[in-house]
Amino acid sequence: MPEMRRAWSGLEKASWVAWVLLLLTLPITSFPHFPAFLRLGDTLVRPLGLYPLGLLLLIDVAPAILLGWKPGRLFSPAIAFAVVASLLTVLNLLEPSLPFRGQEPVGRALRAGATLLVGFGFLLATLRMTRTKERLLASVHWLLAGMGIATVWGLAQGSRIFFGWPYYSHLNPIQRLISIRDLYLGRISGLTYEPSWFADQLLGLALPFLIAAPLTGYRLFTKRWPGRVIEWAFLGGALLALLLTYSRGGLVTLGVAVAVGGMILAAERWGGMARWLRAGNGGGGSAPGRWARILGRVAIFLGVVVGLILVIGWFGSRNPYFALLWTQFRLLRDPTAYLLLVGAGTRLALLAASWSLFLQHPWIGVGLGQSGFQLLDHLPGYAYNRIEEITFLVAPGSNLLPNPKNLWVRLLAETGIVGTLLFVVFVLMVLVAALALMRKRDAWARYLGTAGMMSWLAVVVQGFSLDSFALPTMWVSFGIVGSAAVLLLEGRQWAAEQSQSPPPPSRR
């Protein structure tokens, strides 16, 4: 049936093109141009990738599921969470909250469900389009290409901060074509709505795959020196862009990821590190000589750590608001006062309110999208003390509906212990898969496992300052780890599928 084969090959090529477009546009998360019938209204999360994602689901993912394709074990707890969360939401809507500030409980539930469906769409598409080794590695390259574009755009914004170049009047009209918000004057936001979203992308999608390459000896581009120069330049640019976001959550996430990731990598690679400390290939020699080499290597390590701290301190000192993180250390004996002074009061107050709401409904929560109707009733007393954003929320004429600004406490408040446990199982399965990949002998498996572990840490920590299911960072990074696990850990044969698939673009 040559006609059917040609048609199938055409759909395969179209789906791959849609997937590449999705990866390239992944950093654009507040795209202003969507059809009016979607009724996005004041929705801030508007991924441009929804366009290629919709095409991909229609021509590839949905038909594949109907024909028996299975996305792997990772998807099972995610589906279980979605089903249970939906049932709990319906159960809570039997006695809904009163309408508040023009918002209806059913409407908010549908909106929350839609964001969850978007996230699941990204996860399914990633699992489907990375089902072979070649497609998986090619996808990482295209993902980094998209993040590379975002990084260059972010550094162009940052040039104004350091050099005072009058680029704002020229860059901002371009930014408004892809985002619903103007550029920041003293921070960079890349292709996203705000700097913290850009920091989330850098920490979850770019830096893990860039840092994992030298750690595992995997070459992203070519083994020749131009490829290595590109890798290190990209890594340096991404780190610089992260600093220029002046995202406090991003800095904390970077610190936690480096500390925890370093301990895990040390445990995994302890033999090699011990040999390195013992002077590695140098070996032998007199005892004083060996100790001198060991102390020299320890000095190199400490020098790198101190250098990073000094660079971060220098960059941070250029932004007085960001520098409050360390200039107010004297208040650390009173954590609440410290967080209020450094500008984290809004998140702290909403976290406390969400936790109080969870304690009132510990098992089944209040339903997806329903926490905003009750959060103002649970705000702590200090929330009303000179926290500008809270003042706007509680003002009688305000039309804002509060949200937890914290994924983990939002899960507790809206889905209770039952729903949260299912989501935690899904998240922990990703970590287990990443750690298992790190133990494989295949260089690319170790690379993806190391990148997946660092991305997992970033997603978990960033979840304490972001709460949207529609942001694609978590779903795409988890999907890549899930696909690698299917290929290597579950022992699936992908050669048969490979013979039916068009070859992915050659590696850059």
Alpha-beta classification = mainly alpha
- Largest sheet descriptor: none
Number of helices: 19
What Rg do the Cα atoms give?
A: 24 Å
Proportion of beta-strand residues: under 5%
Look at the structure and give the mean pLDDT.
Answer: 81
What is the H/E order? HHHHHHHHHHHHHHHHHHH
| Uncertain segments | 276-285, 492-508
What's the overall geometry?
globular
- Annotation, overall tally of beta strands: 0
End-to-end separation? 35 Å
Helix content: 55-70%
List the helices and strands and how they pair.
Blueprint: H1 2-25, H2 50-66, H3 75-93, H4 105-129, H5 133-163, H6 168-178, H7 195-216, H8 225-244, H9 248-268, H10 270-277, H11 287-317, H12 320-327, H13 335-341, H14 345-360, H15 388-394, H16 407-438, H17 443-462, H18 473-489, H19 495-500
Short structural summary:
Helices cover 67% and strands 0% of the residues. The protein is mostly helical and 508 residues long. It has a domain at 2-265 and 446-500.
Report what the structure shows:
The protein is mainly α and 508 residues long. The chain has a domain at 2-265 and 446-500. Helices cover 67% and strands 0% of the residues. Residues 276-285 and 492-508 have low confidence and may be disordered.
List keywords for this structure.
single chain; 508 residues; mainly alpha; 67% helix; globular
